[in-house]
Design a protein that fits this description.
- α2 runs antiparallel to α3 (about 75-85).
- This protein is mainly α.
- The longest helix is centred in the first third of the chain and has 27 residues, at about 1-30.
- Mean pLDDT is about 80; it is low at about 10-15.
- It has helices at about 1-30, 45-55, 75-85.
- It has three helices and no strands.
- The protein has one domain (about 1-85): Orthogonal Bundle (Type 1 dockerin domain).
- Bound molecules: calcium ion (2 copies).
- One calcium ion binds near residues 74, 78 and 79.
Length: about 90
């Protein structure tokens, strides 16, 4: 009985981990074409820094679409996270 509980707990943990990872992978792999905050043709950590500068109010861009990496219509930390993931080679 105790072994069954452990197996069930492990299975539940694995299912939760997969469910938590799927939204990040699916949204992070879908970078909108043309989205490139600093416009240098490469998505890297410098783009994440640009997004954080915008979010901090240090920079007011003319074209917000370049900063919306996932194309959800909102520029947020998630867009900076996508740049960091690309820079790290995860996506
Ligand atoms: Ca760039
Ligand atoms: Ca976005």
């Amino acid at each position: 009985m105790r072994l069954i509980k452990k197996i069930a707990a492990c299975s539940l943990t694995a299912a939760i981990a997969v469910a938590a990872a799927v939204p990040f992978v699916s949204s992070a792999t879908m970078i909108v074409p043309g989205a490139d905050p600093n416009g240098d043709g490469v998505i890297d950590i410098a783009d994440a820094v640009c997004i954080y500068r915008v979010l901090a109010g240090k920079y007011d861009p003319d074209d917000w679409s370049k900063f919306d990496m996932d194309g959800n219509g909102v520029v947020s930390e998630a867009d900076a996270y996508i740049c960091q993931m690309r820079d790290a080679g995860v996506i």
